[in-house]
Automatic annotation (TrEMBL):
GO terms for MF: asparaginase activity
Signal peptide location: 1-20
Protein family membership: Belongs to the asparaginase 1 family.
Domain Asparaginase/glutaminase C-terminal: 235-345
CDD domains: L-asparaginase_II
UniProt keyword Repeat, yes or no: no
Residues at which substrate binds: 78, 111-112
Protein name in UniProt: L-asparagine amidohydrolase
Domain of life of the native organism: Bacteria
Gene that specifies this protein: ansB
Catalytic residues (UniProt): 32, 111
Organism phylogeny: Bacteria, Pseudomonadati, Campylobacterota, Epsilonproteobacteria, Campylobacterales
Domain L-asparaginase N-terminal: 24-215
Amino acid sequence: MRFICKVVFFMLLGSMVAFAKPTIYILATGGTIAGSGSGVLDSSYTSGTVTVDKLIAAVPEINKIATIKGEQISNIGSQEMNNEVWLKLAKRVNELLNSGKADGIVITHGTDTMEETAYFLDLVVKSDKPVVMVGAMRNSGSLSADGPLNLFNAVNVAMSKDSVGKGVVVTMNDEIHAAREVTKTNTTGVDTFKSPNAGKIGTVFYGNVKYYMTPARKHTTKSAFDIEKIKELPRVDIIFSHSNDNPDFINLAVANGAKGIVNAGMGNGNPFPSALEALGEAVKKGVVVVRDSRVGSGETTMNGEVDDTKYGFLTSDNLNVQKARVLLMLALATTNDKAKIQEFFLTH
């Protein structure tokens, strides 16, 4: 009888462990997913008006599958995203994941700069546990608001054992994208997030998570960057190239203290002649210049039409300009060795 009781006890204990819900923290930063407007058919709205508690309450289904805890990191439109929020967010994510308080993190965020925040976190989070960025293209009061289902899917992605080791991902419109690859491609469409160079890495359909690819570049625990050693991020400016261009904005960036410049060049990262010479002069003054392309996909190759060796330029591999800026800021906060910085672009 005693033996039978022990067997039953351990069976019940095993069942409790098997059905123990994971703890998922939702860190809210604002954005359209936390926005509200005047009516269901009114396209005007204000970002960052709904608190994290209300976001969670709007999707009661997530409480059935996970222990949900919410924190308000900021409540802004992501066009207002800044270095201070980035540093605060990154340090909190690391604290929650490495202390064992969280099994996964979901970050609600505006879509305008979601790809930049995702890539920043991908480079500085020191955990293999899932970190999932999510947002919405339609505010909470809009007809067919996409936020609730996106949030439900994001929690499921954060719970999935298959998300472990994938780095930071963006979950929107039933798709899962790697932080390094994803970009916003449409101003208003719900299918705005795409990965032009690599494609999505998975899907999530009403909580059913499937992965098809794994990010190959260094991220999270294998990344070279340590956020605990970074107190501030240096100024890096993006200069957009065009026909009949001039060097004025390059010279102004240098005069105002830019430590780095990412040039969104034409085609394969080609600047206008006078801009090319100004970028070369910037390098002589100690500014790190990275050639990139305004095209939006494809690799910016070394020593093509531009003699990068002569001018002292670096190239961005296939990062878009906004992500090249993120990487260059972290690189400059870590080292002044240009060869090492170029290596970061080829490995991260």
